[in-house]
TrEMBL record:
This is Crossover junction endodeoxyribonuclease RuvC. It comes from Rhodococcus zopfii. Belongs to the RuvC family. The active site is at D7, E68, D141. The gene is ruvC. It catalyses: Endonucleolytic cleavage at a junction such as a reciprocal single-stranded crossover between two homologous DNA duplexes (Holliday junction). SUPFAM superfamilies: Ribonuclease H-like.
Length: 192
């Protein structure tokens, strides 16, 4: 499975692509950062991010795009910019019929470091080790994008099993409720 990880941001949007192998094996494919000038109009900044993401999707052909979910930030303006950048990337993927999965920062940190509150340096160090990179990806947005891709590779099988279990439980619940309705209808018909 090829995964494109995206650490969304207006000033720096990290992009990383990895291939999953057997077990927890993950191989690096590409990493980079899209930068937009702060003095550029918001719509133009989003357009640049979208165009770069589309170029990466067309070049690397990911099976899925993993985007960091905006969870909570103290600065509302930063949170809005992050959400908007993530949104244009998700839209670019949807136009290509590429599934998009969102992961919270703590899910990603827990997956790659074992600690959901790990710092950026720890995430970068672990990604460098996991992917056996000669040098650490810089800036941190690039490392975070790779971490998102790796976390998705490792979490996807579990998420698929959970979804299958939920679907099975829902189907069993429907059958049970249908049986109860049929029994109630039979009792009602027998009592008339």
């Amino acid at each position: 499975m090829r995964v494109m990880g995206v650490d969304p941001g207006l000033t720096r949007c990290g992009l990383g692509v990895v291939d999953s192998g057997r077990g927890r094996e993950v191989l690096p494919v590409a990493v980079g950062v899209v930068r937009t000038p702060t003095d550029l109009d918001l719509a133009q900044r989003l357009l640049r991010i979208s165009e770069s993401a589309e170029e990466w999707m067309d070049r690397y052909r990911p099976d899925v795009v993993a985007v960091e979910r905006v969870f909570a930030q103290h600065n509302v303006r930063t949170a809005m910019g992050t959400a908007q950048a993530g949104g244009v990337v998700a839209l670019a993927a949807a136009r290509r019929s590429i599934p998009v999965m969102f992961h919270t920062p703590s899910e990603v940190k827990a997956a790659v470091t074992g600690n959901g509150s790990a710092g950026k340096k720890q995430v970068t160090a672990m990604i460098t080790r996991i992917l056996e990179l000669e040098t650490a990806p810089k800036p941190a947005d690039a490392a975070d994008a790779l971490a998102l891709a790796v976390a998705h590779c490792w979490r996807a099988p579990m998420l698929a099993r959970l979804a299958a279990a939920e679907a099975m439980a829902a189907a069993q619940k429907r059958r049970y409720e249908e049986r109860l309705r049929a029994q109630a209808a039979a009792r009602k018909a027998g009592g008339q």
